[in-house]
Every structure is written in C-alpha cells, then in structure tokens.
C-alpha cells in the first residue's frame, strides 16, 4: 500500500517536472520570435523604402557626374545656336575616348571666371588662328561663319594671331560680337583637362517656349 502511494507520488512529481520543463522550453522558443519580428519589419522597411532611395541617388550621381553634364546657360554668347536661359545636356563620356575637334561645342571650367562655360572649338593644339578682314583662318584655311551672329573682330586691339599650345584649345562663342572667349581672356586657351563634356542638345520648359533641339552639325571649313 505504501509503495503504491510512493510510486503515484513519484509519478505525479515527474509529470509536474516534465510539464514545467515543457512550459519553460516553449517560452524560450517564443522569446526569440518576438525579438525577430521587429527586426524583420525593420529589414523590410530598409529593403522597401530606404534602399530604392539610395539606389536612385547613386544612379543620379553616376548619370550627372560620370555620364552627362546638365546646366542652364546664363548668357547669350552662343546665340542663336544656344539661347540665354536654355538648359543644355552634354556627354562626359565622349572625351574619355577622343579629343575635341573643330566645330564641336564644349562645356568647360573657366578658372578666370570661376564658372562653367560653353563655346565652340576653333583651334586645336598646334594650330595658327588668325582673324582677318574677311573672316577667321586656321592654318591659312578660312572657316565658315554662317552659324555665327555678328561680325568677328579681335577684342584686344592689334592682337589677331594666336598659336594654340599643346593640350589646349582656342574657342569662340557663336555670338561673335557678344562673347567673352579666347580673344578676350587673360588665359587665352582652354586646357584639355578642364573640358568636361561635349554639347548634345538644348531644351526649354517655358522660359523660351517648349522645345528640345539637338546639336546641329555645321560646315566648318569654307570652300576654297
């Protein structure tokens, strides 16, 4: 009789111990899950909202700092090719693989004016550039002026001949009577390493109307 009671008591104690162990084991398993849920929500927020914004910023930086150049033109030195207030887009990648050449419109940094400028390439390294009564000559060959506005004259009295140094360019605005360019600057030439992009197109979203106009090729050399 006593042995039977002892066995029953021992069985009850064992059952109670097993139940308590199962209870605490279940609690231990549930606690990490409660901690994991907020962490998963945080990761979901990062992947759904934060990462797309960061990717967008990264793509924008790559496009504007590596691939394209975008700016608003503040002056009329390139009229009527580019109007005051036009927004322009240039390609930065082009000059990774080639150097500027005659007639191209380039976007470059001017240390003298502490700003970006847009002008047309007239003389390349080693060229002799001259302004004569009948036009502009490069290495004794006259260039066309049908894309320009106004009369081309030297802006420094008596200075009308220049030899372009190595890795430099002689540039002028298409608005020849209203352009601060190589005829006028103290540092006459544009260094090659200050050229950022080649002009691609211009557009206006209301200031000058509504349009998008691509760079039009020109005939650079005049017929002899």
Low-confidence stretches: none
Approximate strand percentage = 25-35%
User: What is the first-to-last residue Cα distance?
Assistant: 133 Å
Give a short account of the largest sheet. Answer: 8 strands, antiparallel
What portion of residues is helical?
25-40%
What is the residue-averaged pLDDT?
A: 83
Cα-based radius of gyration, to the nearest Å: 36 Å
Note the total helix count: 2
Instruction: Give the SSE order as H and E letters.
Output: HEEHEEEEEEEEEE
Tell me the structural class: alpha+beta
Number of β-strand runs = 12
Shape, per Cα inertia axes: elongated
Write up what this structure looks like:
The protein is an alpha+beta fold and 224 residues long. 31% of the residues lie in helices and 28% in strands. It is built from 2 helices and 12 strands; from the N terminus they run H-E-E-H-E-E-E-E-E-E-E-E-E-E. Strands 1, 2, 3, 4, 9, 10, 11 and 12 form an 8-stranded antiparallel β-sheet that branches. The chain has a 4-stranded antiparallel β-sheet with strand order 7-6-5-8, with no helix packed on it. The chain starts with a helix and ends in a 10-residue tail after the last strand. The mean pLDDT is 83.
Distinctive features:
alpha+beta, 28% strand, eight-stranded antiparallel beta sheet, single chain, 224 residues, four-stranded antiparallel beta sheet, elongated
